[in-house]
Amino acid sequence: MGTAIKYRLELEVDELKELRIAYKYFAKAMNQEDYLDEKLLEKLNVAEPHLPSYKKKECTKIATKVRQDKAKKKIQNAINLMKLEGKKLTLYSIAKESGVAYQTVKKYITINEVN
Q: Quick check: is 5 in a domain?
């Protein structure tokens, strides 16, 4: 006998309510109250929201900060290099030179800051 594969559904509160109603309605329509899988019905009735832990939230904040700092450093290095080479500074050219997305460059600097 193989191992059971578990699936996780992500449902909004309204979707969960509708699923509970539909499941019960189906059993009544089939005239088989005992048709309901008791384990599934129990899971539907006791389902609770899955919220990230405090530790996960903090780790996500740290990872985001590290990613932002790396992007800022790449942008600043590209600006410095382009100034040394005498290249024209535009948001697009900075993005291309730094390897960072245009929107990221736009988020962290304005062209007035670099000229």
A: no
